[in-house]
Amino acid sequence: MNLYMPAFFSFSCKYVIYIHLQTLLFAVLLFFSGRSSAVQGVDLKVHSHTFSEPSPIKQFVDSFEGESVGEGEITFTHNRAEAVYTFKGFHVGAIARYDYWVGFSQDTVQTVFETENDLPIGNGIVRNLFLDVNHNQSKGINVAYSFKPSTGLSITPTLQLYRSESILFGRLDGVLAIDIEENINGELRLDYAYNEDVIFDRDPQMFDGKGWGVDLEVDWQINTQLSVNYVLLDGLNQFTFEQATFTEAVLNSNTLRVNQSGVLDVNPALIGFEGEKTVKQRLPSKSFAHLIYRPYKYVSFDARRERFGAEVFIQAGAAVHLGGFSTAVLYQPKGEAYVLTIRYKGLGVSVVTDNRDYEQAHILGVNLNLSY
Fold first, then answer.
1. What's the farthest any 2 CA atoms get from each other in the chain?
2. What is the DSSP track for 318-342?
3. pLDDT digits (tens, 9 = 90+) for 41-90
4. Containing domain of residue 255, as a range?
5. How many Cα atoms sit within 13 Å of 37 on the Cβ side?
6. CA-to-CA distance for 297 and 321, rounded, in angstroms?
7. What does the buried/exposed string (b/e) look like for 77-101 if buried means 16 or more CB atoms within 10 Å of the residue's CB?
8. CATH code for the domain in which residue 283 is found
9. Count of domains in the chain?
10. pTM of the model
11. Which residues of the chain, if any, have pLDDT below 50?
12. Is residue 339 within 8 Å of 318, Cβ to Cβ?
């Protein structure tokens, strides 16, 4: 059975756990490099965040194989690693990033779940299918300058310049209808650009793109007790791929049928074409707002708002400070997740998850910062 949608999912799924393993490995390298070097003005940062709304991340990685699937319309992973050198307010660095955003309708989730688990799709139904994929893997450099218009206030705009190594960008949408006599009518429209064709299994294409992005950070120490930090990532951005391979096609239901087990069997006719064209891609912006109120020497209260595209996560909690060591625990209502942050001098580690069992987690995030 092949509805083509599982190919989009499986291509994105295989990277999710791999990205987090890379993050943990880089954390070890950061730790030991920090202990063996006395170089000042260098910051190493890793940010990794994965969220799967309809199912645990592990089930998404397995293309929804399992006993059931919940409601949801988005899965994404955002990952970036940076090394930045600072000198007299100037910041120059290198960056590597991996982004994957998948938007879909609930009908799409249900259809993929049924097909991947060989379940009967039923009859007398109409499914509105929609799948939007926005993937980019890039490396580049950045340059920034910190302005200090007043005491305690720092404003830092950053320009990023990228070379993109991989793209999967486009959508699949249409309608699938099965009447009570199990007659099928449907049409799917496909339009996407790619380095690796995950639907028709063509040979990988060698091309790359160029991109740019603008970030912004505002750090404000309002008084001795209250401080605010705001970071906007990809506030403006664009990636351009010249001579990118693409496919535009319409898949009709002339040969759709339901087999004796009630499982949808699809071998649709394909009308369309492939070729090369210039593709312009934009990634969703991300923002992070952090409010710290520290009325006591050893205790502070934290509130955070994190936004990935249209997805917003609110966190609140408290921290304990003992000399150069501090630890904070925050609660996130969305997904019922917890955040644990530990800082010691120039090293900071933060982990967020909604389940100690990684196979059941819908949310998994790791932040690492090392200054030396």
1. 75
2. EEEEETTEEEEEEEETTTTEEEEEE
3. 889 999 999 999 999 998 888 878 887 888 899 999 999 999 999 988 89
4. 5-371
5. 16
6. 7
7. bbbbbbbbebeeeebebebbbbbbb
8. 2.40.160
9. 1
10. 0.84
11. 1-4, 10-21, 23-25, 27-39
12. no
